[in-house]
Design goal:
This protein has 294 residues and is α+β, with helices and mostly antiparallel strands. It has three domains: 2-61, Structural Genomics Hypothetical 15.5 Kd Protein In mrcA-pckA Intergenic Region, Chain A (Roll), CATH 3.10.290.10; 67-157, Pseudouridine synthase (2-Layer Sandwich), CATH 3.30.2350; 163-261, Pseudouridine synthase (2-Layer Sandwich), CATH 3.30.2350.10. It is 17% helix and 28% strand. The chain is built from six helices and 15 strands. It has helices at residues 15-20, 28-36, 108-112, 145-156, 230-237, 284-293, and strands at residues 2-5, 40-42, 45-46, 58-61, 78-82, 86-91, 136-142, 161-169, 176-180, 184-185, 193-194, 204-213, 216-223, 260-268, 275-279. Strands 5, 6, 7, 8, 9, 12, 13, 14 and 15 form a nine-stranded mixed sheet that branches. A four-stranded antiparallel sheet has the order 1-4-2-3, with no helix packed on it. Strand 14 and strand 15 (275-279) form a beta hairpin. It is globular.
Length: 294
């Protein structure tokens, strides 16, 4: 554990910038990962990256592990689309997108190295957006620094169309709906996202009923924003928890993971302007589970 007293000359700095300047952390990106993991405390309280320091505070954190060189690995990815600038990959459930504490190998980043992924942070080359470990489906990955910057701009402009299929417990009150509710790190549990947060960020989710199956519903879900755990938190907030989601939804041991699949990805190509539309069918485990319910 590292303990640091904030010097008076750091007064006014945001916590993430202060941490990023410490030799034990090394970069703002590493600082943000520590904050996202809930590993930083300021005067005994959970640290938020946007907190402005006054000077004199006691900051405690576990230093990040020393980064290991990335080596290509086979992780079972399907390349659904590729050209010289980018590729779209189909991520299986159980694969973490990028290295993190406890996941030093076997990530999607290791899998896309053999396909020329590049751009962005050194420890997560090519990555512009993420899927949860137990969510399967499509992600776009950059193959150059310029492609990474242009794809990140699409994400910022909400120009990356992302459609998911989700099975939820309960019956929606309407065939279509829009959930607009800011979310952020939960006030009491830093490992969870929540509507009950001190650092809310705008979040909008659209859903449409595909099929009713007993007391469960198959939904098509579109993201207008892309916050961490957004779909899972939003659907749980309207009493439609995702089946198999042990954190926000309904645990389902026979399924072994959340019934959530990124089934379609669409965007205007950042270099050619042509429309790119890629689809991914339900993976075998979800298809079999659904068929058994019917």
């Amino acid at each position: 554990m590292v303990r640091v007293t904030v010097p008076d000359e750091a007064a006014g700095l945001r916590l993430d910038r202060f941490l990023g300047g410490l030799p034990e952390v090394g970069s703002r990106a590493a600082a943000e990962r520590l904050l996202e993991a809930g590993s930083v405390r300021v005067d005994g309280e959970q640290g938020l990256k946007s907190r402005r320091l006054a000077g004199g505070e006691e900051v405690e954190f576990e230093p990040p592990p020393e980064a290991q060189p990335l080596e290509p690995e086979e992780v079972g990815l399907r390349v659904a689309y590729e050209d010289e600038h980018l590729l779209v990959v189909d991520k299986p459930a159980g694969v973490v997108v990028h290295p993190s504490p406890g996941h030093a190998s076997g990530t999607l980043v290791h899998g896309v190295l053999t396909h020329g992924a590049a751009g962005g942070e050194e420890e997560r080359p090519g990555i512009v957006h993420r899927l949860d470990r137990d969510t399967s489906g499509l992600l776009v990955v950059a193959r150059s620094e310029e492609a990474h910057g242009r794809l990140k701009q699409l994400v910022r402009e909400h120009a990356l169309a992302r459609t998911y299929i989700a099975l939820v417990r309960g019956r929606p009150r309407s065939r279509r709906g829009r959930i607009e509710a800011p979310i952020g790190r939960d006030r009491r549990d830093p490992t969870r996202q929540s509507l009950n947060t001190e650092n809310p960020r705008d979040a909008v989710t659209h859903f449409e009923l595909v099929e009713l199956i007993g007391q469960q519903a198959l939904l098509r879900v579109d993201l207008e924003t892309g916050r961490t755990h957004q779909i899972r938190v939003h659907l749980a907030s309207i009493a439609l928890p995702v089946v198999g989601d042990a954190v926000y939804g309904v645990p389902e041991p026979s399924l072994g993971r959340q019934f959530l699949h990124a089934t379609r990805l669409g965007f205007d190509h950042p270099f050619t302007g042509e429309r790119v539309e890629v689809e991914s069918p339900l993976p075998v485990d979800l298809a079999r589970y659904l068929e058994a319910l019917r």
